[in-house]
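Design request, tokens follow.
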């Protein structure tokens, strides 16, 4: 993040360090012996002998810029580069630690994972991944380096952390009992971007957060920004906290989430220790079937308009369209009636939660054979949806002992992994060029 000058309050030399921890003492009058602007370094470093080049940084930044779906303003790009630089240093430390612990990553492992990512994004032609990366100013080597870092760190954690994490049966039973007691209450799946701040750095952190929100509102990837900027342990998961109960969150986050709808972004707002940008990904009732998981059989009936159509013609045809559809006697009659007004009918099975938020409630409250109100425009066409079938979701069974045990183990492993990486940073020898 951008660094801002810290205004130091006047204090005597005798008590200059009284309010600081760790024995740090800062005199009242500071004489700067040498200019040192950390934002004006060249983009390269040597981390315990391993070199991070300017090209490494440029290629990795290009990945994030592409995820932002557009060019970044100069100040935003500068901030992105600094964060990506720190990430590359962490990644280097993780790869080095895997080698030191004799769990290195092979080229075959990296290439296999790269092929999987390519197949997920480009289907039957994974070779397009190379072309895409080069086209955005990145490279296959950059993405493969990131993959190597992720695999390396997983190897280290499996060897040095996971075997030493123990969850007692009593802890699991207490968690199961708590979940049963809370059955039917709401829980929220939240994405977070947390930026730490002190009273001295509050204004700079706020400006950073506001610029991140601006980029997100313009189509930037929340997951990508969370990975690069969030200072929470959830950054490794793209900021995804998973489903949580409001009583486990800071009061400001809980109050904001209570008023949000899935897909809504809020922030930045203050929480203890810093600022929060929050995305409500989803919400559900604990232990209850979610109506949005119902599978709906729908028929879409639509009409189109020529590019040069006038509004009066649109209004008249929409009126005819609406009145004609009222005469339908159910889903079996849809094609015949639609043909009389030159309308198109398309049938599909779709899960309710995949529909736009404003459509979900209407369709879930409809009976078989009913239609929605017309929606659309002259440019995109006007259509209705007819409900022709509905398979409600099965009742959700409570979490079992093994599932809860695994969840608690993963939570504890993640916390220890964060401490492990912090220790690697503290012990590293890093030379900036």
């Amino acid at each position: 993040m951008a660094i801002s000058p810290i205004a130091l309050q006047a204090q005597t030399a005798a008590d200059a360090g009284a309010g600081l921890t760790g024995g740090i003492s800062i005199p009242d009058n500071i004489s700067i012996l040498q200019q040192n602007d950390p934002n004006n370094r060249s983009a390269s470093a040597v981390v315990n002998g391993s070199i991070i080049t300017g090209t490494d940084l440029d290629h990795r930044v290009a990945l994030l810029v592409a995820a932002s779906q557009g060019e970044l303003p100069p100040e935003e790009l500068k901030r992105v580069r600094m964060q990506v630089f720190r990430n590359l240093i962490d990644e280097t430390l993780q790869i080095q630690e895997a080698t030191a612990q004799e769990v290195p990553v092979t080229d075959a492992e990296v290439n296999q994972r790269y092929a999987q990512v390519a197949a997920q994004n480009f289907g039957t032609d994974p070779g397009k991944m190379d072309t895409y990366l080069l086209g955005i100013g990145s490279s296959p080597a950059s993405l493969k380096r990131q993959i190597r870092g992720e695999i390396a760190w997983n190897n280290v954690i499996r060897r040095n952390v996971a075997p030493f994490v123990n969850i007692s049966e009593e802890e699991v039973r207490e968690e199961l009992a708590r979940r049963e007691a809370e059955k039917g209450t709401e829980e929220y799946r939240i994405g977070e971007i947390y930026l730490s701040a002190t009273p001295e750095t509050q204004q700079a952190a706020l400006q950073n957060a506001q610029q991140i929100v601006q980029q997100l509102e313009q189509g930037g990837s929340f997951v990508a920004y969370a990975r690069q900027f969030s200072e929470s342990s959830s950054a490794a998961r793209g900021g995804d906290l998973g489903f949580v109960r409001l009583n486990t969150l800071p009061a400001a986050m809980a109050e904001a989430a209570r008023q949000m709808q899935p897909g809504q972004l809020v922030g930045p707002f203050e929480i203890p220790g810093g600022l929060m940008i929050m995305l409500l990904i989803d919400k559900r009732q604990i232990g209850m079937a979610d109506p949005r998981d119902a599978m709906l059989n729908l028929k879409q009936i639509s009409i189109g308009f020529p590019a040069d159509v006038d509004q009066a013609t649109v209004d008249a045809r929409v009126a005819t369209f609406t009145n004609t559809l009222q005469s339908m006697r159910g889903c079996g009659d849809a094609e015949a009636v639609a043909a009389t007004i030159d309308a198109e009918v398309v049938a599909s099975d779709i899960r309710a939660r995949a529909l736009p938020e404003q459509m979900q409630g209407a369709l879930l409250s409809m009976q078989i054979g009913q239609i929605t109100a017309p929606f659309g425009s002259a440019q995109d066409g006007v259509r209705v949806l007819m409900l022709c079938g509905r398979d409600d979701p099965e009742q959700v069974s409570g979490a079992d002992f093994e599932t809860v045990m695994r969840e608690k183990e993963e939570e504890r492993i993640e916390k220890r992994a964060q401490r492990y990486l912090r220790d690697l940073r503290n012990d590293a020898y890093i030379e900036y060029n």
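Comment from the thread starter after seeing the answer: thanks! The first helix runs from residue 54 to 67.
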